[in-house]
User: Which sequence fits this backbone?
């Protein structure tokens, strides 16, 4: 066994194997996507832009249970709510989602009992200003304003 290792080291077998992979990739055809004209394939489990689901009346489905905020590993979700004196239910007053800190892990989406918060497959989220990445409730309901690129 030691003789085999010695011969392998002297003849640089590992180096030759590595260089063969390099030379094969040098002569193969490169694959390039022409981005604005050709869109990438989006996989089913991709997590992108966050959205809040609304019911048929256009009102948010969020019940202000605060589970998404408690379950977020980086604390990028803030939920504020008040008790309605008549119905004794919590009513959502403010919902803030900070995409600058978000890991897009999907924990908020999985824990939501009413499937309100969703991470969609929209991946074009570039903005010119950092404050545009902090989304309030109305922005989460309608989605981020997109910069339209010409094809």
Assistant:
């Amino acid at each position: 066994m030691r003789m085999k290792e010695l011969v392998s080291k002297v003849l640089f077998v590992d180096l030759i194997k590595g260089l063969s992979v390099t030379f094969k990739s040098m002569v193969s055809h490169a694959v390039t996507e022409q981005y604005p004209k050709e869109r990438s394939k989006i996989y089913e489990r991709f997590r992108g832009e966050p959205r809040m689901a609304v019911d048929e009346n256009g009102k948010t489905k969020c019940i202000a249970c605060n589970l998404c905020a408690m379950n977020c590993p980086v604390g990028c979700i803030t939920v504020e709510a008040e008790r309605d004196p008549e119905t004794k239910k919590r009513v959502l007053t403010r919902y803030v989602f900070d995409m600058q800190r978000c890991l897009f892990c999907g924990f908020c989406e999985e824990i939501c009992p009413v499937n309100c918060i969703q991470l969609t497959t929209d991946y074009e989220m570039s903005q010119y200003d950092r404050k545009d990445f902090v989304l309030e409730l109305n922005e989460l309901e309608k989605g981020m304003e997109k910069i339209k690129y010409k094809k």
In short: The helical segments are 2-10, 13-27, 67-71, 107-111, 137-142. The chain is about 25% helix and 15% strand.
